[in-house]
Amino acid sequence: MAALTTDGLSARPPFWRSLKFIRWSIQLVAVGLSVAIVFYLWNNLIRNMRASGISTDFSFLTQALGVNIAGSDISPGAPIWRGLLVGIKNTFALVIVGVPLLTVLGVLIGIGKLSTNWLVAKICAVYVELFRNLPPLLLVYFMFNAVILQFPAVENSWDLGFVLINQRFVAFVGFVGQPGIGMYWLVMGVTLLIAIWVWIWRTRRWEQTGEPHRRVAWSMALLGAVALLAFLILGGPIALSIPAIDGRVATGGYQGLAQYFGVLIALSMYTASHVAEITRGSILAVAKGQTEAANALALKPTQRLRHIVLPQAMRIAIPPVISQYLNFTKNTSLALAIGYAEITRITFQTIGNGHPAPQMIALLMASYLVFSLTISVLVNILNRRLQYASR
Amino acid sequence: MTQATVYSDATHAKGEPIIELIDVDKFFGDFQALKDINLSVGLQEVVVVIGPSGSGKSTLIRCINRLEKHDRGRIVVDGIELTDDVKAVQAIRRETGMVFQQFNLFPHLTVLDNIALAPRQVRHASKAEAEATAMQLLERVGIPEQSRKYPGQLSGGQQQRVAIARSLAMKPKVMLFDEPTSALDPEMIKEVLDVMVELAKGGMTMIVVTHEMGFARAVADRVVFMADGQIVEVGTPEHFFTDPQEDRTKLFLSQIL
Amino acid sequence: MTTQEVSAVFTPLRKNWWLWVKENLFNSWYNSLLTVVLGTGIVYALLAALRSLFGFDYTILRVNLTLLMVGQFPRDMLWRPWLSGYLLVAAVALAAGLLKAQAQSKAEQAGLPFTKTRPGDVLRRGWPVLVLVVILLSLTQTITPTLLTVGLLAMGIAAYFLGRVIPARGRRLAWVGVVLLVLGGYLALAAFGGRGWSQWGGLHLNVFLTIAGIAFAFPLGLLLALGRRSSLPAIRTMSVTYIELVRGVPLITILLFAYLAIGFLLPENLKPSPITRILIAITLFEAAYIAEVVRGGLQALPKGQVEAGQSLGLPAWKTTRLIVLPQALRHTIPPMVGQFIALYKDTTLIQILGVLDLLNVSFIINTQPQFLGQGLFILTMSFAALIFWVGSYTMSREARRLEKKLGVGER
Description:
The structure holds three protein chains of three kinds. Chain A is α+β, with helices and mostly antiparallel strands. Helix content of chain A is 66%, strand content 7%. Chain A has a four-stranded antiparallel sheet. A two-stranded antiparallel sheet of chain A has the order 4-5. In chain A, α3 (80-113) runs antiparallel to α4 (118-132) and α3 (80-113) packs parallel to α8 (258-296). Chain B is of the alpha/beta class. Chain B contains nine helices and eleven strands.
């Protein structure tokens, strides 16, 4: 082997030129700087709060809330933490109804944009362009002030039989349990389990023998029959509760505040416009190559959509759609503007009542963060599984 | 594992050694990409590295200019040892040019700017000087008329010739070629190989990873055969192609020739 | 012309027209049903909308137009927003002309095709804006704004063509001119006895917060994106933490924080004005989103580009500055416009803090004694909606156009 000749440059390089040293020092400086900034701000916070005599811990959470929360049984004397819990519950009430609503609306409009009917395609396109280019807060305001507040006052409610609509609330027909309701639920629970088993059994049979599974018909027929039979045998354990106006309040049925519906509808319509675009894009992305393959297999257009295009489009669409669900959830904070008592509104009111803003806002942010981060962890897991399955 | 077969006339590098690899190991996680590599390349020597895919050929030359960091052993280029010293790494990268399989031209710059960029930024040449050199190099690779175009407007062969010119603009002492013709359409391979042959005749020190056996035969001073991260056999083209010693070399040659 | 010739010209057209209707509206029984039902609904809705459009009393908008546009900017200083508008339009038009000229000379040198923008293209792409301007002018009470707008338009066109014809040597100087014009646009409002941003309002404030928010957030977002892609674990962790934390909460919570709590974090003598606090909040919030946009651009860049830079001996920061960023940022222009639109819409949130932005003004004017309880919400809100919609729609269409253009671009 030839002699190894090296000059001074490499013999013993000074330590500050080593990559390891450079990497470590950059990181140390960056971390040090960040810690210093955070420490400085934290110090200011504590000092300023002490100086103005504001409590620096969370003990104030047990003090009285001091406000009424419409649509809940919380009294102004209840502790703040219970008010916050109601706020979280109300936020969830928006999300749980809003997410299915906006999904159905968005997917329908997205498919509609691809319709062969020119008029349908145009209407869907106009919908998307109209709604996604408007500020969501403006939509919320518009829905509440320009639409819902133009509804009749409570005493002149629109009475559609099973639904009552006025500018303060919407009341739906509800159910009230009669004697025997417990037994009825028990029977129905067992029946549901049997129905699921029937579903699985029909599916297996279809896979083994190829005879039509008709699993929907079988299970639904079973459920329906038992529901009717048990209802009759138990002597009508459930009664309808039809909403009615009694002076300035409604009795019976389920009531939802107008503010709730204002936020729900406005934000669902807004988010649906985004979901529609995702749906359309995903279908187009799949349709290009796969449709030809499906045609070659002589599948009918409906079969093609159901078995080939939609399952794959869903795989593409799920991550961005979930990110839209997250946006929807974050946007529910706009309910603050029209006075629906979700978590942001309650935080805002509590601060207005003289409780310390830093802690309250920290709690508010933490609530949203827990939700967002949980969802994004779930999405990541889902993504990995989807990717794995597509390999 | 047995020691690599080394022919008597291929033990040493031709002339003064400019690149030396001593006992070099490289791992990607648990996978050992280079095992105990010893290679010495002399000034003005052309070494062609061949071997099946995944044999570590590319990793070998990517270690020489620190696109990959070797884990054990020593690599010395032109008297500078590759260590953690950033200055040494920069110095070695200035001395070695590299040509990639995918050209890696900068799509946002014109051909001329692609070539003039590094001399201006690294060697601090004036604009006029750098552009004059760039034009000379473009003439040398035969496409001066394309200087104002963008890489996307050129054919693959033309792009690769620009990439060679771009490397040469730094006046390197060593040129590394990482499968320079593998991404090209067959009709464009020759124009790139011609430039490389001309470069070799001009006395450039070159390490070429390639599947072009014709090029290896015609231009190489030595041929290195690698498999499973090891150097299996080293020899002059005459020996290597007519009288391979190792079974794995024979098998490989029988498959591709 | 004989009848035969006439029918030869018209028959295919009429046939196509009929075929088109048949294929696109009545191609199956359910589509026919849909067409009839939806068509009836649309006609009815359009008629109702038209009726109410003519039925409204637009006095509320006429009286409050200035308030909607610039908030409570002193009325004897209205020449300042106009002057500022002139300077900014000049800056934008000049920049557009310069960019177009640069693109043209680049394309000519490289022998690439270059399409000139025709007045027809401008009309086709910018019609919503033109319609909006006409609507706004129709609500003015004197002739002055119309004259000023015509002047503005003429000057914009002149500045564009000035940018087009400036020779290559003078372009660098012209860009300095653009920067000076933008600076002048700000100074015209704030300097020499004017009013700083703390006293701005109306649409003007929404636009300002959008531009300033993106401008301030961009450097921070760029650093965060590079940090997230860094090979240094501590830097990466810090960037990811910041980005994910900010993206996990709604903008309103950050606005509330800046508005109600930021005073606690600063030394006692530092008391930023409400608008400044809002700007801080927007900057911190947008930085995280811009970081994600830029990260998208960075991820799209092939690894070989960095390796090529390294192998040429370029130091890491020069590789980033000269090779990575120019390419990555080019690809982030369309999503960046998207981010701009999102912020433009989000600036309405400051209404919640009681700031008089366009949305809030369009809300509050309904409480003026002469308009109280007249149910004019629908009119004023629609007016605000129109303004936001025109801006967002036009920009999003431009972004999509750019995306297509970049897609078939130089790569």
